[in-house]
User: Which sequence fits this backbone?
C-alpha cells in the first residue's frame, strides 16, 4: 500500500507544534474502524494529545471516490474490504481469505489496471485532499480543548449556523408536509435505487417500507436542532471542527489558483468523506467486531452534519454555491450503489455474520500473528491497484 498519508500526517503534527505548541503523538491502528480519532488524556495535571490513525482509510477513500464521483460501482469491493477486516478481527481466517479473494476479483472486474498514470495521479490527489481534511478536523479537537476562550467563540458561530438551518427548515415545512416529501418522485426513485433488484418481491416491499420509516424517523426537524444545541455538545464540536478544517484549507487551495469550479469540486470531494465515514459507522453497527462493540447509527446526527457542511459553501463561498446544479444528487447515486451492494452482501453472508456474533459473544480467541501478517500483506498488494 502506497503511504500517501505520511505527508499530511507530518504537516498536521508540525502545524500543531508550531502554531499551537501542542505536541501530539500518533497511534497507528488497524481493523474495521478506518477513520481517525482524537484522544485527549490527563494524567497528574499533564495533558497528552494522541491522534489514532488507520492507514487503510486511504484505500477506502479511493474506493468511495471511484463510486461516488467516478461512476464506477465499487460497492461490493467496499463491503468485501470491510468484511475482510471484520473477519480478521475475530480471527476467522478462512472467512478473511474468502473475502480477500473476492476483493481481488472485484478489483479485476473494475479493470483498474487499465487506468492511465494521469488517472491514478488524480485518484491520489483526491485522497490526499481528503486526508488533509480528516486530519485537520481531528487537530481542531485538540485546539478547542487547549483554548477554552476560542472554543466558546467557535461554538457561538456554530450555534448561529444551526439556528440559520433551523429557520430554513421552519420555512420549508410551512410549504410542504413530510408526507408530501416522502411521496415526491425524486424521493421514491432514491428509495427504489437503494433496494437490490435481485431480492425476492416480498423482501423488496419490506425493505421499501423500512427505508420509508427510517427516512421519516431521521428527517431533520426544527426541534431536533434545539435538542442538539441544548444537550449534544459533542455534535456541536464535530460541526465546528468540520468548519474550521474547511476554512483553513480553503485559502490554501485559493492560493494555488483554484477557480470557483475547482473549489466546488474540492467541496464535493470532502463531502464524499462524510458519506464514507457514515457508511463505515453503519457497517460497524452491523458487524459488531470485538474491538469496537455495538455502534448505534444515528441518522439525524448524520443528516444535520451533512447539511451544516453544505451550508458552509453558501455562507463563505456564495460565488461557488451558485454553480451548484445536481452535483450532490449525483454523489448520492454513487452512494446508492454502495448501499445496494451492502444489502446484498449482508443478505448473502448472514451465516458468516452469525458466526462473528457468536464468536464475539464467546470471546477468548487466540490470534495467529503469522497468518494475520500474511493476509494483511496480500490485501495491501491487491489494494496497490487503486493508488
Assistant:
Amino acid at each position: 500500500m502506497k503511504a500517501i498519508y505520511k505527508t499530511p500526517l507530518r504537516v498536521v503534527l508540525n502545524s500543531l507544534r508550531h502554531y499551537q505548541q501542542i505536541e501530539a503523538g500518533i497511534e497507528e491502528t488497524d481493523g474495521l474502524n478506518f477513520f481517525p480519532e482524537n484522544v485527549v488524556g490527563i494524567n497528574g495535571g499533564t495533558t497528552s494529545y494522541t491522534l489514532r490513525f488507520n492507514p487503510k482509510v486511504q484505500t477506502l477513500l479511493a474506493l468511495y471516490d471511484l463510486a461516488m464521483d467516478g461512476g464506477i460501482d465499487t460497492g461490493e469491493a467496499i463491503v468485501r474490504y470491510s468484511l475482510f477486516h471484520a473477519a480478521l478481527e475475530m480471527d476467522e481466517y478462512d472467512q478473511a481469505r474468502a473475502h480477500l479473494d473476492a476483493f481481488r476479483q472485484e478489483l479485476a472486474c473494475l479493470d483498474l489496471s487499465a487506468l492511465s498514470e494521469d488517472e491514478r495521479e488524480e485518484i491520489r490527489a483526491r485522497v490526499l485532499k481528503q486526508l488533509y481534511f480528516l486530519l485537520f478536523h481531528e487537530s481542531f479537537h485538540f485546539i478547542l480543548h487547549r483554548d477554552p476562550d476560542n472554543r466558546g467563540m467557535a461554538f457561538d458561530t456554530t450555534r448561529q449556523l444551526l439556528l440559520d438551518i433551523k429557520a430554513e427548515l421552519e420555512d420549508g415545512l410551512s410549504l410542504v408536509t413530510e408526507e408530501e416529501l416522502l411521496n415526491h418522485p425524486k424521493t421514491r426513485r432514491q428509495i427504489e435505487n437503494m433496494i437490490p433488484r435481485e431480492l425476492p418481491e416480498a423482501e423488496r416491499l419490506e425493505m421499501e417500507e423500512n427505508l420509508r420509516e427510517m427516512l421519516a424517523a431521521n428527517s431533520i426537524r426544527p426541534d431536533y436542532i434545539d435538542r442538539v444545541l441544548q444537550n449534544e455538545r459533542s455534535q456541536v464540536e464535530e460541526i465546528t471542527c468540520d468548519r474550521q478544517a474547511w476554512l483553513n484549507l480553503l485559502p490554501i487551495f485559493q492560493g494555488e489558483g483554484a477557480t470557483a469550479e475547482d473549489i466546488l469540486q474540492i467541496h464535493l470531494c470532502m463531502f464524499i468523506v462524510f458519506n464514507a465515514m457514515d457508511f463505515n459507522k453503519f457497517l460497524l453497527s452491523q458487524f459488531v467486531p470485538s474491538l469496537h462493540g455495538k455502534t448505534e447509527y444515528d441518522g439525524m446526527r448524520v443528516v444535520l452534519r451533512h447539511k451544516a457542511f453544505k451550508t458552509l459553501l453558501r455562507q463563505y463561498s456564495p460565488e461557488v454555491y451558485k454553480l451548484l446544479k445536481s452535483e450532490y444528487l449525483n454523489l448520492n447515486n454513487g452512494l446508492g450503489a454502495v448501499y445496494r451492494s451492502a444489502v446484498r452482501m449482508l443478505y448473502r453472508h448472514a451465516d458468516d455474520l452469525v458466526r462473528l456474533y457468536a464468536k464475539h459473544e464467546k470471546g477468548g480467541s487466540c490470534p495467529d500473528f503469522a497468518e494475520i501478517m500474511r493476509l494483511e500483506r496480500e490485501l495491501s498488494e491487491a489494494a496497490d491497484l487503486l493508488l
Summary: The radius of gyration is 21 Å. The longest strand covers residues 46-53. DSSP finds 17 helices and three strands in the chain.
